[in-house]
Amino acid sequence: GPSYADQAIADFLERAKVPYTRMEHVAEETAQLLADNCIIGWFQGAMEYGPRALGSRSILASPVLPEMQAWLNEVKDREDFRPVAPVVTEEDAPQWFIAAQPSPFMLFVNQVAPDKADLIPAVKHVDGTARIQTVNREQNPAYYDLLKAFERITGIPVLINTSFNTVGRPIVCSPRDALECFWTSPFDVLVMGSFLISKQYGDKDIRGHSHVQTASAFG
Hints:
Layout: H1 6-16, E1 21-22, H2 26-35, E2 40-43, E3 57-61, H3 68-75, E4 85-89, H4 93-96, E5 108-111, E6 129-135, H5 141-154, E7 158-163, H6 175-183, E8 189-192, E9 195-198, E10 200-201, E11 204-205
Parallel strand pairs: 2-8, 4-6
Antiparallel strand pairs: 1-9, 2-3, 3-7, 4-7, 5-6, 8-9, 10-11
Helix pairs in contact: 2-5
């Protein structure tokens, strides 16, 4: 699907008059926000075609808090019992999910390993299973690097992945789509390419920079 280079994203943000920060270390900085339990819109590379978001147009979160599943369902404006899916590095999948095999398209359901279940409660269905996506560096370098950075911080090579959209809407395609979904949904941070956009928290955004939301964000 369509992809957008950093320059195209920056040009859009400048036209929209949206404050942003350019990150030097995207994986590491984003992983720290995830470890701090921020919910993040992740917009990287070419859009996927198909029924699943596979790490190019995704909403990502930490699996550590049990309540994260309900929070994500609030973000997505859907029923609070709906499950969310984990993404895991391919090499670590067998340690975290029983009989896991490569599953880059999120096609298989596995039991969460009993000794890991309490570490990633947000991704378990009521029967202890999860529909997993596995990722290796060759398939999606940015996504893989983010998982490894999160593992370095938390010891957990697993994130929650759900599609970057809200109920009744298609998965976002363009920077404009992503920004509109971000402004109209209750999640914390948008990472597009190398750029971080965050919502206002009091007078400061999540990274401590002044932030003013403008109506021209949709222009």
